[in-house]
Structures are given as C-alpha cells and as structure tokens.
Amino acid sequence: MELIGQAEVKTREKFISAGAGRIYFRSVRPNGVAWARIGLLHGYGDHCGRYEHFYRWMAERGVGCCAMDFRGHGRSEGRRGFVSRWDEFLDDLAVFLAQPEMNSREGPPVFLVAHSHGGLVAAMAGIRGLSGMAGVIFSCPYFKSGVPVPWWKGVLSRVANRCWPSITVLNGLRPEWLCGDEEMIEDSKRDVLGHRIATPRWFETMQVAQGEVMERAGEFKLPMLMLIGKKDPIAVAEVGELFYSRAGSVEKKILVYPEMLHEVLREKERILVFEEILRWMRERTSNIEHRTSNVQS
C-alpha cells in the first residue's frame, strides 16, 4: 500500500495465461470501495506501465484501474509486435475482461480507456458484440495512420507477409510525435519495454481491421467518449471524428484538443483530460443508477 497525495492506493501485479503465453496484468485501486473501474488498453509498441500516473490519479478519486500488456508488448510474452492473426488482440482482451477484477456483472461499473491501437481493438470488440461496459473512452484511436509509409516498405510488407511475416522493420516513430511534455518525451526515450518496430503480419492485418471498423462503425453501440488530439501526427484525427459521427451509440460525446498530439493522457495539460474523463464517468454512473432505480420501483 502506498500513500499518494492524501489517499491510499493498492497496487497488484500478476501474469495471466493466454494463447501466446503469459500476459502481464496490473491493478491500482483505492484503499476504500471503488465507485467505478477502468480497464486500460495501450497502443501498439506501447505498454501499460507508461500510464501509471493516470491510474494513481484515478485511484485517488475512488476509481479502480486495471491494465494489461498485449501479447508481444511490455512484460507480456510473445514475439515483439507480432500476431499470427490480428484477432489475437481480441483474444487478449477477452482474457483481460474475464479477470475477477474486471467482472462487469458484479461490482461497480466498468469503463474501457482505449488508446491508439488499443482503441482499434476496443472498437472492433464493440462492433462484434462486446457488452457489459458502462462506456468506452477512446484516446486518439488508430483508425487511420498519419505516418507516411515509403513505397518500398509497402512492397516489402506485402511480400514478407507471405514468406516472413514476423520480420521486424523500424516504424520510424519519434518520441516527439507523442506529446509536447518534455519529461514524458525523455521518459519515452529511456523506456526499454516499448518497441519501435513493426512486423508485416501486424501491419497488413491491422489495415484490414481499420477498414472493417470504419465500414461497420454504425454497429458500435456502446456509450463512448471520444478524445482527439487535433495535431496528432500518428492517428489521423479526422478519421477518429468520422468514426464518432458514424457510430450507433445513443450516448456519446467528443472532445477535441486543438494543440495536443497523440498521447493526450501524457500531454502537459493531461490533468484537464483526466478531469473530463472523470466527469463523464460520473455522469454515466449517475445515469445507470437512475435507470436501475426506475426499474426497481
């Protein structure tokens, strides 16, 4: 147990079994009873350890937070940046949500906070029938890449996907593209758990997943909060906004931050973002409690 500010929080780490081996799981929760829970889905080449500041801020305010590293990422097992099928990310999500800490049938409401490629996973899961979530909070979802791919890399990817799908190629991303906070930029440069590579199988199947998500956006029905960094050079902001407009969610809200880059949860003004997320979650839980009381009465 640790004392953060004026509130105590509890942290826990474990490994859970999945198709590619063991997946790293982490939770940060308040000492008292949580009124809501968050499950964070990180981006490609990312890992859940980069959002510790977010978990602790939320836990101080009574929100339990859980996160995992997708296979091939962070502390989880599996080849770096590689999947045999893109849907293996959905398999990891299913294992994550099956953990007792994330049980949506018992305990406080569960929200997903889905960043970048994690947003693509959450969107696909919602389209294919994910239920039980109180809401999905998208952080600069990766529905279309804003990073130009040289023609030769495109050719190499298509050819290698057939004969050497796990070969690694530098993705060309720079820490300065992620956010404008100098401390966070330096943290990204020093990070030994993240990776800046791509594999042909991931790249080719990821593009197919992006196409399906955009074509079927109207089938996404879960409540959503969309967070967009308008100057994001990695995930095209306008495509995130387009998904939002097409989504079939009855309850949805979008917040666009004109000066922010890709990682709005690590930007200089991130506390403003945290406060918006907290406010939306409280509104959603109030709505859930109101509907439940009406049904009981």
Spatial extent as radius of gyration:
18 Å
- Continuous helix count: 8
C-alpha geometry: globular
Binned, the helix content reads: 25-40%
Low-confidence stretches: 1-6, 292-297
Q: Report the sheet-strand fraction.
A: 15-25%
Features:
alpha/beta; two-stranded antiparallel ribbon; 297 residues; globular
Structure at a glance:
The chain is an alpha/beta fold and 297 residues long.
Would you mind describing this structure in some detail?
With 297 residues, this protein is an alpha/beta fold. Helix content is 35%, strand content 22%. The strands form 2 sheets. Strands 1-2-3-5-4-6-7-10-11 form a 9-stranded mixed sheet, sandwiched between helices. The protein has a two-stranded antiparallel sheet with strand order 8-9. The longest helix is centred in the C-terminal third of the chain and has 27 residues, at 270-296.
Question: What does the secondary structure layout of this molecule look like, with pairings?
Answer:
Layout: E1 2-4, E2 7-18, E3 21-30, E4 36-41, H1 52-60, E5 63-68, H2 88-97, E6 110-115, H3 117-127, E7 135-139, H4 151-163, E8 169-170, H5 182-190, E9 197-198, H6 200-215, E10 224-229, H7 237-246, E11 252-257, H8 270-296
Parallel strand pairs: 4-5, 4-6, 6-7, 7-10, 10-11
Antiparallel strand pairs: 1-2, 2-3, 3-5, 8-9
Helix pairs in contact: 3-6, 4-6
